[in-house]
Amino acid sequence: MRQRSPQTWRLIRDSAVGLMADRGFDAVSVDDITAAAGISRRTYFNYFAAKESVLFDPDPDDPRLWAELTAARPAGEPLWTALHQLILAYTAAAGAEIVRQCRVIAASPSLAVCSRETCDRFWDCARAWAAGRDTAATDLQLDLLINTARAAFSTVSARWDVDTGIPGLHALIDEAFTLVISPEWKKL
Amino acid sequence: MRQRSPQTWRLIRDSAVGLMADRGFDAVSVDDITAAAGISRRTYFNYFAAKESVLFDPDPDDPRLWAELTAARPAGEPLWTALHQLILAYTAAAGAEIVRQCRVIAASPSLAVCSRETCDRFWDCARAWAAGRDTAATDLQLDLLINTARAAFSTVSARWDVDTGIPGLHALIDEAFTLVISPEWKKL
DNA sequence: ACTCATCGTGCACTGAGTGCACGATAGCCC
DNA sequence: GGGCTATCGTGCACTCAGTGCACGATGAGT
């Protein structure tokens, strides 16, 4: 991949999401995007490897946000609690972007699969961060814990009504993270 | 979608997977597949909506297998245990196909995302089956339980060395399902 | 002025996926 | 047997995604 300027990245992203929010993902071609952004087709693919990428690629600013959020977690905090708080903080910070993305995805079922990639970024970071903490957990335990948190989140985000906004999402997250840690729920 | 004959379905599937096992997914075009199967390009797309579909679409025989496996679960069995046993039985039954698929996917990283769809089919069935059982669980509890099981499975399948075969996979599944249900693992 | 890195562009090409109309075969009914 | 119909494979033309490559504009350093 060639080098990329952050301004062009934003320009393409904003043009594309704008069009897709209006017409839906499938009704917008790459040519439409490049026309709206005033760039060439080839430049588009210098920035985004595929049509979906313009929705799902990480914001260049993301690593900075993640560093900030993890730095705020106290040292001795149990991992489960920390993950709970991190996901609240992350969804709060990226709120507007998330809601916009969810609307486009919801309107175009063919995108449902790809949407997982967005979450994966978060959980990959979480995994790396958790592994760097002082803990007695084995690799397998860590993976299971992270993936269970991921499962809790994906469960509630599937039930989330986008119109309730981030507060509605947070209420569901709290409920799920509490349920999973309760001792009796697996005897169902 | 037009009507389809099971023989043609199998013919295309087998030709495609054969080629992909040899050369890798990306190096096989739809034209290669249709040439190998002795059918036309258009017929291919009458059977499979996309190139990946030939790997990931459910075997027409799958519903029968699923019905058989769930019928074998005793009525009062805790859901977690039942899911544990179901996934052992399913991976045992579909073993050869799974190993073959995993090899192709492992050799072509661009397919990693799509591979989730295969698992989704299993867990969708599991969810529907669990909802039909007599249980005091709420919808949210059921979803969380299913998705936690899914997380446990996806954790171990990511760590699975395909060359250890289905027995190796089963050992990992047993370990994970035991760990997750143990009371202390979330205090890490 | 020269050089070099950066980054946008034009073009030609491959391959995925679709809409549509046609054709071959096989069963069925009179 | 002749005509009807459902099934299912096929050929063709087309759109759009994605790539390799060479060129061009700009701007900074010397």
UniProtKB/TrEMBL annotation, chains A, B:
InterPro entries attached to this UniProt entry: Homeodomain-like_sf, HTH-type_TetR-like_transc_reg, HTH_TetR
DNA-binding region location: 29-48
Keywords: DNA-binding, Transcription, Transcription regulation
Annotated ranges, domain HTH tetR-type: 6-66
PROSITE patterns: HTH_TETR_2
Domain of life: Bacteria
Name of the protein this chain belongs to: HTH tetR-type domain-containing protein
Protein source organism: Actinoplanes couchii
